[in-house]
Amino acid sequence: MSIKKIICIIALSVGLQQVYAQDSTLLSKLDDSMQVDKKTSYVTGTFKAIYIVNMQTVEGEGKGMLNFEIQHRFGEINGPTGGSYNLYGLDNATLRLGLDYGITNRLTVGVGRSSYLKTFDGYLKYKVLRQTADNNSMPVTVSAIAYAAVYTQKSPDDSFLNIGNRTAYSAQLLIARKFNRNISIQLAPTYLHYNLVATKQDKNDVFAIGAGARIKFTKRMSIEAEYNYLPDGQIVSQKTHNSFSFGWGIETGGHVFQLVFSNSQSMSQTQYVAQSIHGVDQSTGDWGDGNIYFGFNISRAFNVNRPKPKSPGGN
Question: Is residue 159 part of a domain?
Answer without folding.
Answer: yes
